[in-house]
Amino acid sequence: MFSRAVSTASVAGRRAMSGSAGGFKVAVAGAAGGIGQPLSLLLKNNMNIGHLSLFDIVNTPGVAADLSHIPTPAVVTGHTGPEEVGKAFDGCDVVVIPAGVPRKPGMTRDDLFNTNAGIVANLADAIAKHCPKAHVLIISNPVNSTVPITAEVMKKAGVYDPQRLFGVTSLDVLRANTFVAEALGRNPAETDVTVIGGHAGTTILPLLSQVEGADFSPEQIAALTHRIQFGGDEVVQAKDGAGSATLSMAAAGARFTSSLLRALNGEAVSECAFVQSTVTDLPFFSTRVHLGTSGVDKIDGYGTLSAAEQANFDEMIPTLKAQIEKGIAFAAAR
């Protein structure tokens, strides 16, 4: 659990300094990509955003011009290349990072490590320099490794705040909500499944035993758990080499960003997220997180697990530990 360290008044002060009197300044790093474009579109419609700053290595001005025609309060600016990253990030309240290469058929999230690790580390350097107080939302896979990389980079810069760093695991929750609602004949918009662990394969653990009113058979639990864990493979295969889960990931990223902005405005909000945690012996873990004006306000435990969930939990801990340590080692070797 973390205590609140920043008041709502100080958040308002940062908003004023950012030049976003009508809302927060939010940057999207990787805004011209497959996730970045739909994510930016969704964020343009967020009434809590006063300045939407788009950053990428190519094509950002065109994306910004396109979005700027949408009649919502957020001012949109486009910034391209390393020489403009300072202007893109300066004064940001939130930086969302979907930058990186997408998965292709047969690739795991871990296969993306070598390319995406370097991209995320460089962006973390820029955040540490230009907006060290920003809340940082990591979408770039493998999240189990890129979040620790970001933490280590910011530690080296002397600006790390665990309350402000999040691995966005919301897509696992959205898939769980969709698949569980289908199985129960419920409205998925009114379903909210807690998903713990990490954000890759078997490290994703939906707590189906805690879904109110559900009475799944062992076979249903096994099938639903596997589909939630490997739902991304359905999309990669269906796109036949043309991409991975971009639209659903954009929706998940927009959901988490929206929840965080509401919390920064003083609203009580909770989401599952991969954060620094003492819930397990691992340095990072995803459980339900209560958000506040400082970012992470309180971290929940995961409650009582069923026998099947406990077995999955015990199996995934060493895998998650190795992926976290891989990120830490990468950052140390830079």
Automatic annotation (TrEMBL):
Domain Lactate/malate dehydrogenase C-terminal: 169-330
Catalytic activity line of the entry: (S)-malate + NAD(+) = oxaloacetate + NADH + H(+)
Record-level GO BP terms: carboxylic acid metabolic process; tricarboxylic acid cycle
Catalytic site: 199
GO CC entries: cytoplasm
Residues given in the record as NAD(+) binding sites: 30-36, 56, 116, 139-141, 249
Residues holding substrate: 103, 109, 141, 175
Cited InterPro entries: L-lactate/malate_DH (IPR001557), Lactate/malate_DH_C (IPR022383), Lactate/malate_DH_N (IPR001236), Lactate_DH/Glyco_Ohase_4_C (IPR015955), Malate_DH_type1 (IPR010097), NAD(P)-bd_dom_sf (IPR036291)
Domain Lactate/malate dehydrogenase N-terminal intervals: 25-167
Keywords of this entry: NAD, Oxidoreductase, Tricarboxylic acid cycle
EC supergroup of this enzyme: oxidoreductase
Alphabetized GO MF terms: L-malate dehydrogenase (NAD+) activity
EC number(s) from the headed UniProt entry: 1.1.1.37
Family, similarity comment: Belongs to the LDH/MDH superfamily. MDH type 1 family.
Assembly behavior: Homodimer.
Protein name: malate dehydrogenase
Organism of derivation: Cafeteria roenbergensis (Marine flagellate)
Lineage: Eukaryota, Sar, Stramenopiles, Bigyra, Opalozoa
